[in-house]
Amino acid sequence: MAANLITLGRVLLAVLVIYLFQTNFYGALSAVLLTGLVIYLDSLDGIIARKLKMTSEFGALFDIAGDRIVEHVYWIYFTVIGLVSIWVPIIYISRSFLVDMLRTIAFTKSGQTPFGENSMMRSRLTYWLTASRPSRGIYGAGKVIAFLCLGIIIVLNKADYSLIRLLPENFMYYFSFSTQILVWIVVLLNLIRGLPVLWDGREYLFANDLPRKLENAGREK
What we know:
Strand content: under 5%
Number of helices: 10
CATH superfamily: CDP-alcohol phosphotransferase transmembrane (TM) domain
CATH topology: Four Helix Bundle (Hemerythrin (Met), subunit A)
Distance between the termini: 24 Å
Helix content: over 70%
Radius of gyration: 20 Å
């Protein structure tokens, strides 16, 4: 219960961050700081769930849903204000729908979960790419750095000229360029971590009797 409340709080906090980004310099600066907290809470809910021995299949799926909402809120906002390409949220949202659809089908049909002992990942390689701590850690670190860098660009765009002139020459250009490279690295990592789910869940994609089985399972419940 406590872990799920943290997940819900993380979603609400992300919405607050987007609002603060639209205010003045100090509001945007607060949003950057809170972004670090939003990402930290992503790991805190799992830690608390394991420590209190309250892990559950629903909690794992709810945590993923929270991740998706937070990611999409950030990427859509950064796209709306022109900091990232429209293709970034298109790729993210498309990947999320496909991967989460297969995860939902696997859970409904076989009780398999994205992570944990009953993971739908079948090989060590696919499990390592999607569910291992190194994979999740590398992707998470890249994502938070990208969000923070994009947030810093917003802050600098709202800063007084007296502050901007203290920066090295062409700093904004090179910082923005580096941030764009980082954004696309994160997008690539997101795709790489999603492909194994599509591969291991391919039987669900091509099963002709799947819609009928899911319908019967729903009626039995």
